[in-house]
Amino acid sequence: MKYYLLILFSIIAVADVSAQKSSTQIYIIGNIHDSVPNYHPQILYEIIDQIRPDIILHEVESQGMKEYEASSEDPKGNEIKASNLYLKVNPNTLRLPFDFEGRNSYRRDRGMVPTDNLTFRLIDSLYKANALTVEEATIYKTFNSTTDELIRIASLSPENFNNSRTDSIAQRRQNYQYKEMLKITDTRPEFAERFVVKPNMDSISFKDGFKLMSSFWDLRNQTMANNIYNIAQQHPGKKIVVLTGFLHRYYLIKELKKLNNGSFEIKEFYQK
């Protein structure tokens, strides 16, 4: 009887080890999109090559992925240049998009663009004219100081903008951009009295357009996380690299942790 129990326990142990080895690994790499001295395609390529992924996910929609691949001779952006380098050596690597489908037309058709940029210009002009209340000015100053802190971090090595501390700063910055700023745009008449014309020729106020953009930040990130999750479920036991702007990292990690049913592990590229 003991002999059979030993065999049974051995089989269970082997199965557990096998399951661990086949576990899907997701590496979410926060990027600076444009090449700079401290972060350029060769650096990102070396990070990807160290991981040796089976799948690389790009922060583009399906049409954007086609344009990425079509521009292989003269691509723009760290991510596509680095993944092209990796594919030259590893041609069987799967590349997929994971962004919100039709994101640009979705924002433009609803008037989120250009009201978002116009809204920030107006807030900045009101701030410089000392026309904001003390509370409003504090919100804008905090947003700017947090942005400056992230800019400083982004001038360092990639480990510095791929960690939980920077994620928390990015989350604070994005919360000020898309939540705290609404305390200014929702209450001041300047934002309700200025309009842009949408592609369908209807008009929308800065106030309403910016509010839509604020909601879209959540919708887009939640959609991207769901897309990553679905791809991971379709390709169990694979190493997946997710290439995203580092301001999205905190949100994607947070949402993936909610979705995780134990079928994948989220890892840092410098994590053994």
Features:
272 residues; single chain; 2 domains; 12 helices; Cobalt-precorrin-4 Transmethylase, domain 1; five-stranded parallel sheet; disordered N terminus; alpha/beta; two-stranded antiparallel sheet
Topology:
Blueprint: H1 2-21, E1 24-31, H2 41-51, E2 55-58, H3 62-70, H4 78-89, E3 94-97, H5 103-109, H6 112-128, H7 134-153, H8 164-180, H9 182-185, H10 189-192, E4 195-197, E5 203-205, H11 206-234, E6 239-245, H12 249-259, E7 264-267
Helix pairs in contact: 2-4, 6-11, 7-8, 11-12
Organism: Sphingobacterium yanglingense
Protein name: TraB family protein
Structural overview:
It comes from Sphingobacterium yanglingense. This is TraB family protein. The protein has helices at 2-21, 41-51, 62-70, 78-89, 103-109, 112-128, 134-153, 164-180, 182-185, 189-192, 206-234, 249-259, and strands spanning 24-31, 55-58, 94-97, 195-197, 203-205, 239-245, 264-267. It has 272 residues and is an alpha/beta fold. It has two domains: 22-35 and 43-68 and 76-101 and 218-267, Cobalt-precorrin-4 Transmethylase, domain 1 (3-Layer(aba) Sandwich); 103-215, no CATH class. A five-stranded parallel beta sheet has the order 3-2-6-1-7, with helices on both faces. The protein has a two-stranded antiparallel sheet with strand order 4-5. A hairpin with a 5-residue loop joins strand 4 (195-197) and strand 5 (203-205). Mean pLDDT is 91; it is low at 1-22.
